[in-house]
């Protein structure tokens, strides 16, 4: 048990730990729409650039964290756990939470005073397309292992149609995707 929590993990030197912390620190400031919107760059860094995790390990980290109750941010902790046990969790979570928390507190105080300003409304309206783009990029990365299955595109189109045209709960669509996976369609 202790080897799982504090074992050496994949990272070997202080430079690796510092680089991981720094990367998650910068991504925290770009997490418009939540931490999940930075998953594509986390994937690029941890999987493609550094080779610390395999693509299926990265996707499994996100799936495990999303299946667990709690905040969307849990996937960052699971990635950290796979990279370096408890030290990895602390590194990735601190890097992710520190700047975004400070920025959110500052923006809340500042925005509260200037809530009726025209430039603030323009800024928040302009952030919507950026958030949507980041979330689409996240979806594209997570879809990578199944992009060759036609059923995936049917499920994505069906999900988009249902979410735009009905008041159905997204849980029905998640269940449909789970059934399709269990049946081996995707």
Account of the 3D structure:
The chain is mainly α. The protein has eight helices and no strands. The relative contact order is 0.12.
What's the pLDDT, averaged over the residues?
83
Uncertain ranges:
1-8
Instruction: Count all strands and give the number.
Output: 0
What is the 3D form?
A: flat
Largest sheet: none
| Secondary structure tally, helices | 8
- The amount of helix comes to over 70%
Distance, first to last CA: 35 Å
- Class of secondary structure makeup: mainly alpha
* Order of secondary-structure elements: HHHHHHHH
β-strand amount? under 5%
Gyration radius, in Å: 19 Å
Gist of the model:
This protein has a domain at 2-125. Helices cover 75% and strands 0% of the residues. It is built from eight helices and no strands.
């Amino acid at each position: 048990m202790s080897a799982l929590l504090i074992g050496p993990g994949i990272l070997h030197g202080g430079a690796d730990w510092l680089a991981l912390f720094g990367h998650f620190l910068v991504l925290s400031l770009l997490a418009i729409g939540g931490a999940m919107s930075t998953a594509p760059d986390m994937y690029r860094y941890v999987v493609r650039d550094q080779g610390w995790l395999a693509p299926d390990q990265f996707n499994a980290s996100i799936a495990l964290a999303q299946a667990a109750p709690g905040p969307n941010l849990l996937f960052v902790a699971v990635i950290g756990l796979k990279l370096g046990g408890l030290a990895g969790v602390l590194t990735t979570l601190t890097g992710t939470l520190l700047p975004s928390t400070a920025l959110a507190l500052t923006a809340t105080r500042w925005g509260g005073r200037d809530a009726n300003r025209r430039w603030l409304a323009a800024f928040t309206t302009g952030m919507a397309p950026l958030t949507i783009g980041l979330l689409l990029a996240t979806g594209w990365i997570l879809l990578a292992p199944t992009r060759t299955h036609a059923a995936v595109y049917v499920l994505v189109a069906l999900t988009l149609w249902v979410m735009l045209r009905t008041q159905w709960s997204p849980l029905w669509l998640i269940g449909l995707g789970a059934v399709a996976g269990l049946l081996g369609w995707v």
